[in-house]
Amino acid sequence: MECAGVLDVLVVTGGLEKDSVDGCKTVLVRVVSMLTRMTENTATVAREEEGEYQ
What we know:
- The protein is an all-alpha fold.
- The protein contains 2 helices and no strands.
- It has helices at 2-12, 18-40.
- The longest helix is centred in the middle third of the chain and has 23 residues, at 18-40.
């Protein structure tokens, strides 16, 4: 979650307000959760048969 770390640095250095960062972190958690679930479900991915394209 390097992105969350960058947000923390911006708050400490005065680049962002803490209130605005809390919402961003919520979105980051949702995105990471979604990507994690996508990578866990690789066994059910549809695949094309190998062949020549015309």
